[in-house]
Write a structure and sequence with these properties.
The protein is mostly beta strands. It has no helices and eleven strands. About 30% of the residues are buried.
Length: about 110
């Protein structure tokens, strides 16, 4: 995910680490989330990342401070095969649930 207004690039790896970089490549911070990360969503309004981790059957909610340093606020339970998320902002998140044949609607509880 990219926040061009703030100059941040946010990436995650399958091992479960979120890394926030500046657009110049400097590491601003890291946070550990559930393993199995495939894709994440970024809410620029709330400066939050929503990171499904199938290994934990949960979606981590990660807040970014004014300097881009990530902090895990908590997690929301999801099906174990939920590996993608998208947000339209304001704390509304849609999470795929292939085993249920559904797209789940989650409201950020943090």
């Amino acid at each position: 995910a990219v926040d061009s207004a703030k100059g941040w690039v946010m990436v995650a790896c399958e091992e479960g680490m979120v890394v926030v970089l500046s657009t110049q490549g400097a590491t601003l911070g890291t946070a550990m989330v559930g393993a199995g990360v495939d894709q994440m969503a970024y809410d620029a309004q709330r400066t939050r990342l929503y990171v499904p981790g199938p290994a934990a059957a949960a979606m981590s909610v990660v807040s970014l401070d004014a300097s881009g340093v990530p902090k895990v606020l908590g997690s929301v339970q999801t099906p174990s095969d939920a590996h993608c998320a998208v947000t339209n902002g304001g704390g509304s998140v849609f999470v795929c649930a292939p085993s249920a044949g559904a797209l789940l609607f989650v409201t950020d509880p943090f």
